[in-house]
User: Fold this.
Amino acid sequence: MAKHKILIIGFGTVGQGFYELFHEKQVSIGLEDTVVSEVIDAKFGFIKNFGPDIITQLKGGKTFEKADVFKTIRNSEADIVCEFTWVNIKDGEPAFSHIEEALSAGKHVITTNKGPIALRYERLHELAAESKLKLRFKGTVMSGTPSFNILELLPGIHVQKVRGIFNGTSNFILTEMAHGKSFDEVLRLAQSMGYAEADPTLDVDGFDAALKAVIFSKVIGWTKHDLNSMDIKGIRDISSSDASAGVKLLASMDSESASVKPVHLSPDDLFSNINGVMNAAEITTDTLGKIFVAGPGAGRKETAQAVLSDLVEVINN
Ligand code: HSE
Assistant:
């Protein structure tokens, strides 16, 4: 009998990437007795009792009967729900309701979906806390690269300011534009590599980075920031010569204000060396001064690593 069961909602790039990485690493992380028991996806339907070749079957065109997501969550034997549906920056739906339903049904939740966490974090955090359940969302900021979660290692630390390159797609586009490629050409490449959102305007117009700035801020306790109050500008108007001269899309937050905008960086700024799909965060603190973390900010396996980190935390702590 499996000790822990996982229901995956949304079986696209992130869901399949997590499924593959989980099976690759399951033994080395000591989760032999955890299983992915159910998957529900708008395109593929509801899948239960499947074999390890399920992704190959789906690639071959196999589909399953559709089912109601909310009934599936309520009736599921899983104790952990992974929510990987599309990002909606207007109201966070349908992911918000999926997460709310899962927490109400007594299940821990792991999500990589920025919409519900950035827009309605307080409600979900309260619901999880009331029910003594875990709500983990590491993959929402900088994929599997440590970001806000390093604060868990630093008890008592006081964060004064954060700067970050939080959108892999924009940073990739700017880097390639600096090497002479066109905006459209590189955006298509970013899409084919699985970096861009389903709606890539979220990436290039700065909203994705802004969602991440809001989430990082909420974890710190700077609750006043939201997409409406932030100054948000993307990279659409940036020329190749701006990109060559060191312009990067930078998020900046403190307790009072938050913004995302293209900034011209001096060559001695560490952020000027963050290229391609790399992301980075500079966290200014009272005890350590500046902490700088950098690594991949998007990608199938990279985001799957974030879910794996959250899964180990949910199960072992
Ligand atoms: N579209 C996002 C990015 C994916 O490019 O950073 C990771 O959140």
Remarks:
- Residues 143, 167-169, 195-197, 203, 208, 297-298 surround L-homoserine (CB under 6 Å).
